[in-house]
Amino acid sequence: MLKVENVTKYYDDFRAVDNLSFEVDKGEIFGLLGVNGAGKTTTFRMIMNLTPPTEGKITFNGKKIDYDVTDQIGFLTEERSLLTKLTVKEQMLFYGALKSLSEEVILKRLDKLLERFKISEYKDRKINTLSKGNQQKVQFISAIINEPKLLILDEPFSGLDPINIELFKSVILELKEKGTSIIFSSHRMDHVELFCEKLVILVRGKAVLSGYLKDIKKDYKIKRITIEGDVSKKELQAIEGVITVNKNANSYTVNIKDESYAKNVFDYLKTRNSITKYAVEEPSLEEIFVAKVGEAYGE
Length: 299
Hints:
The structure is a single chain. By secondary structure, the chain is α/β, with parallel strands linked by helices. It has helices at 40-47, 67-70, 88-98, 103-116, 132-144, 162-177, 189-195, 213-219, 233-237, 262-269, 285-298; strands at 2-11, 14-24, 29-34, 55-60, 63-64, 73-76, 150-154, 181-185, 198-203, 206-212, 223-228, 242-247, 252-256, 277-281. It has 2 domains: 2-213, Rossmann fold (3-Layer(aba) Sandwich), CATH 3.40.50; 221-281, Alpha-Beta Plaits (2-Layer Sandwich). The protein has 11 helices and 14 strands. The strands form 3 sheets. The protein has a 6-stranded mixed β-sheet. Helix 6 (162-177) links the parallel strand 7 (150-154) and strand 8. Helix 3 packs across helix 4.
């Protein structure tokens, strides 16, 4: 288990992280979210022991994170950190050695992972000759070559097409099933919703929302109604409790103050013809994220 306890980080007078606490259990995928500059990268650097916290402590399985513990950690950075003039094999031998792996183990795991990611033919190719998507695969392999107990994924799907995103998803879920604790960060809220059981949203280094995703959605008062059929946007907007109405290609999305106002919308729809869909749904994580970040910046 990773435990981040009351961690604060200052750079001179600038407070990058403000009294942050969270836990990531074995075999759990945890979302660390925030806009650019929210403190995510600083938090990752503290977890990796690349920079010490000013206050608080970070432990993994009860131990302070030092060089012995970092051998159990994998980190996929948002910016590519590959040595592009090396071949894929040379790159993995270098990274694997940093994680205290023997050459025999590195090469055995590399062959298996290259086959898994469908890039076996690039083993002896220089990284700068690969496409962005294949470079991302190589970077991901470098993060898991040590079979980490804790894996940090910062924008892991950058540069990938939908087919390869599905491949990455399957590998991430396999790691979870094997017991790897995973911290997942992405600006794509739909990706976060697919993976993360728990999350924290940072604004200016401070947690403005945290907990289990299912509970966050349940507790968020604003609900969404999806309607397909013959309706008037103007008339929907006039209904008591309706906040916004958005017209999509084949439907309308109606946001209401809370679920008690759904009946008002339903009563209106009973007066209309050709209604083919009426569904009261939980808000998306993106809607909650935008609202919470907006509230925090409005303080």
